[in-house]
Amino acid sequence: MSAYRRLDVNEVGDVTVVRFRDHKIVEDINIQELGQEMFQLVEKDRRGKLLLNFSSVEFLSSAALGKLITLDKKVKAHGGLLKLSNIRTEIYEVFSITKLNRLFDIKEDEADALAAFR
Amino acid sequence: MILPTYMPTSDKPWTWQCEKQFASDTRIGRRILEDVLKEMERQHWNQHDIFCVHLAVYEALINAIVHGNRGDLGKQVHFVCGISPQRVRVEITDEGPGFAPDSLPDPTDDEHLCRPGGRGVLLMRAFMSRVTFNPYGNHVTMERDRA
Tell me, what's the ipTM? Predict the structure, then answer.
């Protein structure tokens, strides 16, 4: 049984690929739990290369962006690498308006992101 | 505290209206928002417009419930919505201490980019055609025109 309730976690080589089980990442759907699971990947499991695949995500709130920013800080503090991929147009607009597309390394799809880790 | 007087919507050409007062529970807010989005679909608004209203109204509800009323179930949120084929209008009022939206730091500045919070109002303004707050900061009016 998976150790994660909010995430699907797989290894592709030395990269940890993470997908979200929730289609909508919002406050009242256990966003705290989602954050803790993502932070655990970095702080406890020591995953150095993280790829967040957003293909299942249809909606996210500003609180979800906050969790991603905190995750980015934790990854950097541990000397790791974080990339995002498969972000649909509307969600990318959220990253663009907030200028977080400058903070995060966002790739078109999983293959592009995996290649960028090499 | 005294809640502001609402602009009557009965003289507007809305084809659907709702007015709700509810305790500060995000689940109730989300259910009301789902009704709004369903009505937009019924009136053949496109998916991008629906996404924009979804995000902006969700952020405004969180502002009211979580930041304004601090999740206090004893405090109420007042929600008014009108939808026509050309325009969506939403008004949300909380019973919190209010805030000064124009004094918020710009979250897109380099020095603030890494802060986890403070993006809700930016997203509301970006995804709606017009967003205005009352001087007290506990009442927001938002409109989106059909793209």
Answer: 0.91
